[in-house]
Amino acid sequence: MADASASQVLGGESLLYLTDEQLRQGIEAMFFAYRGFTADPDRILQGLSYGRAHHRAIHFIHCAPGTTVNNLLNILGVTKQSLNRVLRTLVEDGLVESRVGRADKRERHLYLTEAGDALEKQLSDAQRARMRSAYRQVGPEAVAGFKQVLEAMMDPEMQRQYQRLRENRG
Amino acid sequence: MADASASQVLGGESLLYLTDEQLRQGIEAMFFAYRGFTADPDRILQGLSYGRAHHRAIHFIHCAPGTTVNNLLNILGVTKQSLNRVLRTLVEDGLVESRVGRADKRERHLYLTEAGDALEKQLSDAQRARMRSAYRQVGPEAVAGFKQVLEAMMDPEMQRQYQRLRENRG
DNA sequence: ACTTTAAGTCAGCGTTGTTGACATTCCAAT
DNA sequence: ATTGGAATGTCAACAACGCTGACTTAAAGT
Predict the structure, then answer these.
(1) Where's the HTH marR-type domain (chains A, B) (predicted)?
(2) Chain A residues within an 8 Å CB radius of B148
(3) Coil, strand or helix: which one is A112?
């Protein structure tokens, strides 16, 4: 049977939430929810000749001003060639400033310009509005569970980067 | 202040879980978790000249055998041209069978072949393994919260389709 | 029978991911 | 001081997968 792997009891505790059907529901929920998660920023970006890649770069530059290209690379999990194409357009369009490092002139430190900050605010306001609405509907306990599951789904390396970002903001 | 929108109390209940910082954490958690969520299938598909789009098509054809192209279109939220390219390669490679409708000959009904079922099993086994591990780590209450937040994040139309899929499987 | 609507296909384009090759610039170690 | 390695950037090519537009075929409405 499909649910054989979970149709057992361990120490008297029900494992019904681990059936293949429950897991499949979670998988589909992730799929549909991620579409909602990116829908609002996607709408804003379409027509600006920008996409999700630009949004992600702007988000993390905003969170860690002065970050290097290489650091951003690790966070975003893409190749430098891919990121470079995105950063080049953002710099050309005056949304991001790239300053040569003082201690190490090989590094480029990235900052949002005023225009970049304005777009970041527009994008994150829209995305936060949806998150806030969802959080409000379900309450703090559900939100805590939500974050626990997401964290457990990450690869260990991503988990470390996620926590590092949290720590850097208190 | 950044947290002005949530630094209030309503009816004596704390809204600290709605601060901009909490929402930002949720946004980043979604970003990193979705990478983990797709990592295993992506690994399996890479080199097969297939991608996520093929995975999604296979997943939903498996869940609703005999579904039409148009129905799949609505679930996946892409254009028929985009889906068609994916379906064409899957049919050519003998993973999906496309049968002309009997009542309405315009429609094509989609079914997985044995080979298609085998790949579906390989992909969903990998993805479920990660989900199961995450679920096990956090327990049933957290999982319930996780699903509540995801559902609240969906657009209403996606929410309906998500629930319809659940109902069709009991 | 003629028109309209719907389903599916084909062709072409844009974004964004990939790899590979290569230049530059700088730090560090010998 | 020269050499080796690391960080960055550029150019080129390619794959996956969104999109639009134009088209065929089949069903449905008048």
Answers:
(1) 20-155
(2) 137-138, 142, 145-146
(3) strand
